[in-house]
Every structure is written in C-alpha cells, then in structure tokens.
Specification:
Layout lengths: L10 H4 L2 H45 L3 H5 L4 H61 L17 H50 L5 H30 L7 E4 H12 L9 E6 L3 E4 L1 H17 L6 E9 L2 E8 L33 H11 L3 E6 L5 E8 L6
Parallel strand pairs: 2-4
Antiparallel strand pairs: 1-3, 4-5, 5-7, 6-7
C-alpha cells in the first residue's frame, strides 16, 4: 500500500500541521467571539428596550393628577418615543461596530499567538524528525535525549530512542559477524594460495596438475576479493574514526595513477578534469570509493572505450562524476546495481568480473561521510555515476 503523495491529498491536508493548528485556533476564536458578540448584542438590545420602555412609562404615569387628567399630547408622546428608540438603536450600532473591530484585532492577535504556541508545541516533534532524517546505518549512535515533562512527546522521543538502541545492537552484531567470518575465511584461503603456488613451482608436476592449480588459483583469488570486499563494506558502514580535510582531486589523480587504464592490455581513453575540491572525511575510504568507481567504469566497458573522470566543487560540496562507454544499461536496473552481489541483468552467479560489491561499497562510504551517490544510464551506453561529499573549508 503506497503512501499518498502531496498532489493526491486534499487542500486542507496539504498544509503543514503547524499551519493547520493555527487555522484551527484562529477559527475557534472567531466562532466563539462571534457567538459572544451576538449574545451580547441581543442581551443589550433587550435590556435597552425594557429599561427605556419602563422608564418612559413611569415618567408618564408619575405626573400630577391634574396633568394626567388633561388630555395627553399624542404628537409629543410619539416624537419622544421615536427619539428614545433612535438613540437606543444608535447605541447598539456603535457597540456592535466597536465590538466587531475589537474582535478582529483580538482575532489577529489570537492567530499570531496560536502560531507561536503551535510552533513551541511542535518543536520537540521537529527535533525527532530531524534526528530521524539524519540517521543512517553509520550514525545509529545518535539519540534524541529529549528533556521535559513526561508528556506524549517525551514518551514518543523515548520510544524512538529505545528503537534506535535495538537497531544499533542489530547492526553492530551484523557487522561483527561479517568481520569475524571474513577474518576466519582469509586464513584458509591464504594457505590454499600458498599450496597452489608451491605446486606450480614443483618441477615434477605435470601440465594437467599445473593447469588445475592455475584454475584453482583464479577461483581462490576471486574469493579473496569477495572477502576483502565484505570487510571493507563492514568497515565503511561504521562511524568514521578518522576525519580530515582532503583534496578529492588529488585522491582521484592517485587512483588514476594506480589503475593506469591507458597501459592495460585493453587500453581505454581516459579524460580527467580534476579541479580542487576539499571534503572532510577518511582519506583511505575516499580513495577506495573513487577506486571502485573508476575500476567499475573500466571493467564494464567496451573495446576502445572511454572513461571520463571529473572533480569539481559545487554548492559547497565536492562532486565527482565518472562516466564510461560500456554496454547499454536499462534505466530500471540502475538502482539495483548498488545492492550487494548485484550486477547487470540481475546476474548474481558469475564471479569472474568481480564480487558485485564495488558500487555497494561506494554507497556505504558516501553514507558514512554524509554524502550521496546517484547513477544514470546513458542512452549511448554505459553509466554516469555522481558522488557528492560534504565540502570542507581550507585549513579545517
């Protein structure tokens, strides 16, 4: 069941909770004020009508007997009565107008105060939201630690912290298992490699035995790469232990020198546009991140293809873009390439071209640095992968 998007929500629900509470507070105030105003108006009108009528009757009836016995002046009585009613209506109109103006002013004040009250009441929820948005596998150690009375928001924050404790324990256990299992597997693989290399140097070994040893060495090397990748993946998903200011352009230049794409058996044209871009993080993990990107671009390329590496500073971030001219990649499979052991067309079996952890390690390293990685399928074939790392000021 998919969550409703903003375009499918009703106009009322598109507003933020803070605005909705403010509108609700203001609306309730105007409704209550209107009821109070009309009640006051009706009660005042009734009181004025009774008081003026009773008072005027008493004035007439309290005249001397000689005056009462004289025929009353009907014209004077009607004129005086009309004047009294007009004055009463004027008083009611002035009172209604003044009350309406005061109610509008107080309503505006109530809306402002309602917004401030809603903002203060929702501030702890904003803190919970910001913490949840900031969290990833590499910083599950963060906690909200909300202080205050044991109300509903405090209970929500405490429940969220308890959930983070459980998640942190689960992920830490998973990382320890991967690291321990990888360390345990490295020793027998190293022994196997040594035995196979010794057998290849044995003069009495037959050609069939040497061919078998070379095939086993290739298989052993692939498993060693797989284990190294698992170790690096587990390490990159942890919180950074080292954080330095690094020029990403220098890191990219070092990676290109290590790989030497132009000097391979199947040379590739390399185009590098490396501009200074400082980032804060672990230099070794950054180097591994760029190494995997360039190696992946070279590995999944065509004969006589190209690899373009561009480093620049953009919007305060260090941005690295690696483009290759490999085979066509369906756009719907691009996101799956960042999953562990996933390759193009869902291949999870073949190991000759790698362990399928290259882009997974890239994403884990970017997440650990608070960055992001995105990929796009090129219409003419290949991928365009962009890594964004938080920038750093010189000397930091």
């Amino acid at each position: 069941m998919t969550a409703p998007t903003t375009s499918t929500l009703r106009p009322w629900h598109r507003l933020g909770l803070r605005v909705r509470l403010t509108v609700l507070y203001g609306g309730l105030f105007f409704v209550a004020g209107s009821l109070l105003l009309w009640s006051t108006y009706l009660l005042t009108a009734r009181a004025l009508s009774q008081q003026f009528s009773v008072g005027f009757t008493k004035i007439v009836t309290n005249k001397p007997v000689s005056v009462i016995q004289t025929p009353p002046d009907d014209m004077l009585f009607q004129k005086t009565s009309a004047d009294v009613q007009q004055r009463a209506a004027t008083v009611l109109a002035d009172m209604l107008r003044s009350s309406a103006i005061i109610m509008v002013l107080l309503g505006v004040l109530a809306v402002v105060l309602g917004y401030l009250v809603a903002d203060r009441a929702l501030r702890p929820l904003d803190r919970v939201t910001e913490t949840a948005r900031r969290l990833s596998e590499s910083n599950l150690h963060e906690r909200i630690a909300l202080e205050g009375p044991p109300d509903e928001v405090k209970r929500l924050a405490d429940t969220f912290d308890a959930m983070l404790d459980r998640l942190h324990q689960v992920f830490e256990g998973q990382r320890r298992f991967i690291a321990n299992a990888s360390h345990e597997l490295r020793t027998p693989l190293a022994i196997n490699r040594t035995v196979l290399e010794v057998s290849l140097e044995e003069p009495a070994a037959s050609e069939d035995l040497k061919a078998l040893a070379r095939a086993l060495l290739g298989t052993n090397a692939r498993y060693e790469r797989l284990i190294e990748g698992l170790l690096l993946l587990a390490q990159s998903e942890q919180e950074l232990a080292v954080r330095k200011t690094v020029d990403v352009a220098q890191v990219a230049r070092t990676v290109l020198d290590q790989l030497d794409l132009a000097g391979r058996k199947r040379p590739l044209a390399v185009h590098a546009d490396l501009r200074p871009a400082l980032a804060a993080g672990d230099p070794l993990l950054m180097e591994r991140c760029l190494f995997n990107l360039v190696e992946n671009a070279a590995k999944y390329n065509v004969r006589g293809g190209e690899v373009r590496v561009r480093v620049r500073r953009e919007d305060g971030q260090a941005v690295v873009t690696v483009v290759n001219t490999g085979p066509a990649v369906p756009p719907y499979e691009v996101e799956d390439l960042f999953e562990p052991f996933r390759r193009l067309h869902g291949d999870r079996v073949r190991s000759a071209r790698g362990a399928g952890l290259g882009l997974s390690i890239v994403r884990a390293i970017c997440d650990a640095h608070g960055g992001a990685v995105t990929a796009e399928a090129r219409p003419e074939g290949g991928l365009s992968v962009t890594v964004r790392l938080p920038g750093a000021a010189p000397g930091v």
